[in-house]
Amino acid sequence: MPHSFLAYRHRPEDYWRGIILFGRNVATYKFALGRALLDLRPEAGQLVTLEQLAAPYSEHLCTHIRLAEKQGTSRESRFLAACRRANAGELSRQQLIEQTTRLGFNNVIDAFHIVGRDEVPLRFFNDERTRGGGIRITQGFSDLVNRDQSPNLSLETDARWRLVETAWELGVSPALLAISRDPDTEALFVIDAAKRRKSITGARAALSGYQKGHCFYCFEGLSLAGPEPPDVDHFFPHTLKSVGVGTRIDGVWNLVLACRRCNRGVAGKFDLVPSLRLLERLNTRNEFLIASHHPLRDTLIAQTGKKEDQRRAFLNAFHTSASAALIHEWDPVENAEPLF
Ligand SMILES: [Zn+2]
């Protein structure tokens, strides 16, 4: 499924999102390297040494270790131990940078571009550790940071990181891990073993990448950090709950990001039922969430079905009930060519 996401068009942000948002993670180094590169914004052709990368790279890891102890599925690495010691004040910043340069990049530079079994077709850097002590930035990376979608990517990377580390930290069976949304704060949360609500990350940043940063309905580009952030919209209107149809309506499977015009503009969606064409699109988007692995995968499976045909049947049945209750359908005017 990530391949259909990638195969559509060869834009730099599609490859970046493929790397960050999909695939099974055994550690969170990929996220840290992604964040470090987006922070540094090096130019095409520039050699970035491991020392230069080490500062933002280890800082992001130290921050995330404070949020969630577990940053990998295997035994503790010497590098993560160094980050912990830095957090405890036992290593100076300079010492941490030295340790990071020596130990922190062993696997991540080789693994960064791999999604599934293969590398994505566009590289953002080339490995020049033996010759130059660092990585050489490609034109692909410059193209990436000059795109409109670039400001969304750091937020999306962090949201994905939070989801993965939270799943590891809770350590519960993935089948029990259900991500929910708090409508007041637009945050995603889980209920932990002690039945406490644990906030994970913003719903917008978590959903954005799986819609390629565009409005679910009209494909207009969205800006997560802008003055008018997009709406988190119930695909099937929330009002269905009041007529007894929408028992599972608050699930992540039913949440999409929409521009304000589509959600509540003059010809907006409001309480209308999205067309069958849009239902197909929701199914595609939900399969992207499934392909992202835990914990969104597990949440979607718990809410809509174990197999793809079961999930389709679930959506279809929901659409039938929603149409019976609300009668009128809605279909948007699309401003850009379809992206998924
Ligand atoms: Zn829209």
The geometry reads as globular
Task: Please bin the fraction of helical residues.
Answer: 40-55%
Q: What share of residues are in beta strands?
A: 5-15%
Low-confidence stretches: none
Structural class: alpha+beta
| Quaternary status | single chain
- Helix tally equals 15
Number of strands: 12
Strand order of the largest sheet: 1-5-4
Q: Enumerate the distinct ligands.
A: zinc ion
Summarize this structure briefly:
This protein is α+β, with helices and mostly antiparallel strands. It contains 15 helices and twelve strands.
Provide structural commentary.
The chain is α+β, with helices and mostly antiparallel strands and 340 residues long. It is 46% helix and 12% strand. A 3-stranded antiparallel β-sheet has the order 1-5-4. Helix 3 packs antiparallel against helix 10, helix 4 packs across helix 5 (78-87) and helix 4 packs across helix 6. The termini are close together. It binds zinc ion. Zinc ion binds at residues 215, 217-218, 220, 258-259, 261-262.
Which helices and strands appear, and what pairs or packs with what?
Blueprint: H1 2-7, H2 12-21, H3 29-40, E1 47-49, H4 50-67, H5 78-87, H6 93-103, H7 108-111, E2 114-115, E3 118-119, E4 125-128, H8 129-132, E5 134-137, H9 139-145, H10 150-170, E6 180-182, E7 187-191, E8 197-202, H11 203-208, E9 231-234, E10 255-258, H12 260-264, E11 273-274, H13 276-291, H14 296-304, H15 308-326, E12 329-330
Parallel strand pairs: 11-12
Antiparallel strand pairs: 1-5, 2-3, 4-5, 6-7, 7-8, 9-10
Helix pairs in contact: 2-10, 3-4, 3-10, 4-5, 4-6, 5-6, 13-14, 13-15
The chain binds zinc ion.
